[in-house]
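Let's practice the habit of predicting before peeking. Look at the sequence and jot down your guess about where helices and strands might fall. Then scroll down.
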Amino acid sequence: MASIRLYAAAALAVLSSACAGPVTTAPPATAPQVDSAAPQAPSVAPPAGAAASPRRAPRAGAPGARPGAVAAAGAEPAWAPPIVHTLAVFTVTRSVEAVLWPDPFADFRLERWGYHYGEAFTKPPLFDADQPAFRWDHDPWPINVIGHGLLGSEIYFRARSCRFGVPAAVAFAIAGTHLWEYGYEANGVRPSALDLVYTPLAGALLGELRYATWRAAGGIESAPARVLVRALVDPFGEIERGVGVFDC
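Done guessing? Here is the structure:
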């Protein structure tokens, strides 16, 4: 009987180990709880070091990022859009001046143009220190402060939105201001020292604020809200981009 019990105990031990073996050594795929995590099984995972990259959020400027969030890194500035835009703004503004103030801006006689241009290039810019602040060129202060500030910001902002850096955009605003004072307006009035300094300076400050707001609007989730904010900040640019004239 003792030998039978020993054989029985040994048989039970072998059977127990045989039954327990598959449970402890079976691959995870055969376990019932692995089914819910099957999509993350190691057999379908990408190679080590690249597993997390496909699930990262798109970087700024990448194809998946919202358009207009930031300018493309390392992209070359576009010259044609800001130049054409600035010339168009100057032409419209000069035409409005001729309607609102026919004398002297609607005087198209060549002898008068020759006289005013000669005065512009032979005399220093006008600065009358006896006048009140921001009226040193004899213009009303709203035109000098608000009008020239907006004009300068339009020049500066168009350069910035077309991938110009801050120094290049400031230089563009200075060049545009001189073109306005000595080219477009000099056939009617003498260039203003106040305008030559204030227009690009105020334009850079206001224009950079507009540009920062325009870029931040690219992060707005709602498309209508995004378009509305950008249209308020850059109405002319949104029209140009909307009709496909320019892409910046």
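How did you do? The radius of gyration is 36 Å.
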